[in-house]
């Protein structure tokens, strides 16, 4: 898609060196696969703030008027990196640190799900030195300092199923590329944005990060920014405090939200896995066979499309003990006594869309299909303390049951 639109742009450039101004809609630039409730999803990730503080932050309060404030959204663990990893792969594989990691090629991500229907996607990372950059951090040639872009806030690049594939790697771009795509009306259907270490609040303050976000929102939320219904999610990777549940502030904004839901609150239980389950439902995608299955989809999406929200959106059975502050054992845990192989996905699971596990996942894991697995589609939350994952023979689930 992109290459053909680049081609036509350069052709136009040859014909008219004076002006490239042509009226184009996104549909001319990128193929739009319609979703049930939205055609585009943009998520912006800020850093390390407690829910209570975001509630009284001026820019957050201001932005909340334009959308839905999620009152019970929990991050997966601490520190930052595992939360990002979880949001695109359906697990954080025991990760308990921010150092460079690699996740084996046989682990699929949301990208494999998008490929089943030709849904375009990109990650935009402020101050990344070049497309598909694999270093730990920027080196001073972009931004102001050596640590403006950091790999730990770019989940895609740590998955070998992405970093060993040139065309996928080339979807890991900079924020300047996002702004260019916005101007050219060629923003992909799934967008993951990490601001740099200043603008995401990591090295600055909540105020700074939310004010910066509000400025970016002014561009994204312009009525004329997109022709297609677009859902925008502003979230934090994790809370600041480790001694309480990992409760974070999250807003749903954008033209896809029904006007009557603007300036409302939603107290449904969510985690970062809700991003995956919502996307799978919206675009009728298969699932990853991991913790994506069983996570609540965003309530408004269900209500707008005839999903049985009363039966299917529920608290996890262990919601009262949610803490999500320390990582459970796993493949990426730095404590050797807590090392475990990558869990086998549960190939029996049916996801929010009613579809089974993606073929790419089945192909990679079929040989291990009988192994015990922690994934049961129940939506229960796991952590490294009270709620350790329980490995069992792979059972089925029936969504909605
Ligand atoms: C952000 O803080 C880290 C230390 O946590 C430091 O190494 C880095 O240089 C800082 N980055 C910027 C852009 O100030
Ligand atoms: C590389 O990525 C492209 C685009 O996602 C996909 O079509 C292709 O199958 C991938 N190749 C391999 C070997 O996984
Ligand atoms: C908010 O951000 C804008 C643009 O980034 C900046 O011009 C303005 O000074 C900021 N305001 C505050 C109160 O920080
Ligand atoms: C997945 O890849 C890992 C790392 O290469 C390997 O140890 C494991 O056996 C693979 N799993 C299967 C089912 O092939």
Tell me about this structure:
This protein has 14 helices and eight strands. It has 401 residues and is an alpha/beta fold. The protein folds into two domains: 1-30, no CATH class; 31-368, Alkaline Phosphatase, subunit A (3-Layer(aba) Sandwich). The chain has an eight-stranded mixed beta sheet, sandwiched between helices. Helix 4 (58-64) runs parallel beside helix 10 and helix 5 runs parallel beside helix 11 (273-282). Residues 144-148, 197-198, 203 line the site of one 2-acetamido-2-deoxy-beta-D-glucopyranose (NAG). Residues 372-401 are annotated as: Disordered. Pfam families: Phosphoesterase.
How many strands in all?
8
Radius of gyration: 20 Å
| CATH fold topology of the largest domain | Alkaline Phosphatase, subunit A
Which ions, cofactors or small ligands are bound in this entry?
A: 2-acetamido-2-deoxy-beta-D-glucopyranose
Protein name: Acid phosphatase
Pfam family, one: Phosphoesterase
Organism: Rhypophila decipiens
GO molecular function: hydrolase activity, acting on ester bonds
Quick recap:
With 401 residues, the protein is of the alpha/beta class. Helices cover 26% and strands 12% of the residues. One of its GO terms (molecular function) is hydrolase activity, acting on ester bonds.
Throw out a few tags for this protein.
Alkaline Phosphatase, subunit A; 12% strand; 401 residues; binds 2-acetamido-2-deoxy-beta-D-glucopyranose; disordered N terminus
Q: Topology of this protein?
A:
Layout: H1 2-15, H2 26-29, E1 40-46, H3 51-55, H4 58-64, E2 68-74, H5 80-89, H6 110-115, E3 121-125, H7 160-163, H8 166-169, E4 172-173, H9 175-183, E5 190-194, H10 206-220, E6 230-236, E7 247-253, E8 264-271, H11 273-282, H12 299-305, H13 309-312, H14 359-365
Parallel strand pairs: 1-5, 1-6, 2-8, 3-4, 3-5
Antiparallel strand pairs: 2-7, 6-7
Helix pairs in contact: 4-10, 5-11
The protein binds 2-acetamido-2-deoxy-beta-D-glucopyranose (4 copies).
